[in-house]
Amino acid sequence: VIRCRAAVAWAPGKPLSVEEVEVAPPKAGEVRIKIVATGICRTDEHLMQGCFPDAEFPVIPGHEGAGIVESVGEGVTSMKPGDKVIPLCLPQCGECSFCLNPESNFCQKSHISEPQNLLPDKTSRFTCKGKQIHHFLWISTFAEYTVVPEYAVAKIDAAAPLDKVCLFGCGFSTGYGAAINTAKV
């Protein structure tokens, strides 16, 4: 178990509180990441305002970031400790019909089909003050360490500057995708 700082939203409409949290080790098929950089998106504000009907509090927000793999759970083969990565708020299992379709990016394992307040095994890796803390979109980048399913992490080039590529997790990809695919500019 790693103790670190995280910004916790204890209840809708309340400000974030920086707390010491415990982050459990990754289980099979999971990756524990040391978050080096994170972005802030309006979606995080919507979460804290209580706009997501499936969100559960307390929760650690954040859904765009970049970091370094600290440890991996049993069976993880696509990355190893020390690799630079970007957590994905829209996972890519690479096996479902949506991942195999070049016209889609909504993996069947995403929040579209199941809530991502807890990891796929329906447990959390976060605790604070003896209470379970929920994940946000499985990735919770407002923590110094987080645990994410392997299929919700992309290994990136070792030379990539983490403070810049953290925006690829949501901000850049959403903006670029909207301009190119929707607005056709």
Automatic annotation (TrEMBL):
Keywords for this protein: Metal-binding, Oxidoreductase, Zinc
Cofactor(s) the protein requires to work: Zn(2+)
GO molecular function: all-trans-retinol dehydrogenase (NAD+) activity; zinc ion binding
Name of the molecule in the record: ADH1 dehydrogenase
Domain named Alcohol dehydrogenase-like N-terminal: residues: 28-157
UniProt-listed PANTHER family: ALCOHOL DEHYDROGENASE, ALCOHOL DEHYDROGENASE 6 (CLASS V)
GO BP field: retinoic acid metabolic process; retinol metabolic process
Residue ranges crossing the lipid bilayer per the database entry: none
Top-level taxonomy: Eukaryota, Metazoa, Chordata, Craniata, Vertebrata
Species in which this protein is naturally found: Daphoenositta chrysoptera (varied sittella)
Entry GO terms, CC: cytosol
InterPro entries according to UniProt: ADH-like_N, ADH_Zn_CS, GroES-like_sf
This protein's encoding gene: Adh1_0
